[in-house]
């Protein structure tokens, strides 16, 4: 469960509502993980995981992650960053205190996370063409240094 929380909780940033403008990334909006598809026992799955992405001005990106774990504990992480790969602070995350972002396409976000100057994970978010679903590919390392990839599925809430 701790690995899942760390993976899903990476960090967060404040949000903006999704707007149907051609200049707004389809990533902008609030997303909920499909917990039924998480690779863990049903009783260990979080009760709720949401990620909200927003644009906070030219080249500024915000993210907000809210998790209620299986035991009911709430975790909230947030931050604001640029989209040029410059590291920025993350608050409230058990996995990360620093993040860097790039958005190579309007519907793709690449996020690199670290904590205490140690790599934590890399996340790639891709929004489907219809704008209603998003896939997160999370890459992290096992205790033996072996790379692990996991796919999480999200649906748009707004």
UniProtKB/TrEMBL annotation:
Residues 1-19 form the signal peptide. The keyword Signal applies. Keywords: Signal. This is LuxR family transcriptional regulator. The lineage of its organism: Bacteria, Pseudomonadati, Pseudomonadota, Gammaproteobacteria, Lysobacterales.
């Amino acid at each position: 469960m701790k690995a899942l929380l760390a993976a899903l909780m990476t960090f967060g940033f404040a949000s903006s509502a999704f707007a149907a403008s051609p200049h707004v990334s389809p990533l902008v909006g609030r997303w909920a993980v499909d917990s039924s598809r998480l690779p863990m026992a049903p009783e260990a799955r979080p009760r709720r995981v949401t990620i909200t992405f927003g644009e906070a001005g030219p080249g500024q990106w915000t993210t907000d992650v809210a998790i209620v774990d299986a035991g009911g504990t709430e975790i909230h992480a947030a931050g604001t960053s640029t989209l040029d790969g410059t590291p920025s602070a993350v608050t409230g995350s058990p996995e990360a205190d620093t993040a860097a972002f790039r958005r190579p396409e309007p519907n793709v976000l690449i996020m690199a996370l670290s904590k205490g100057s140690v790599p934590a994970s890399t996340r790639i978010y891709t929004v489907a063409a219809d704008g209603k679903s998003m896939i997160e590919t999370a890459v992290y390392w096992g205790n033996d240094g072996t790379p692990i990839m996991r796919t999480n599925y999200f649906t748009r809430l707004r």
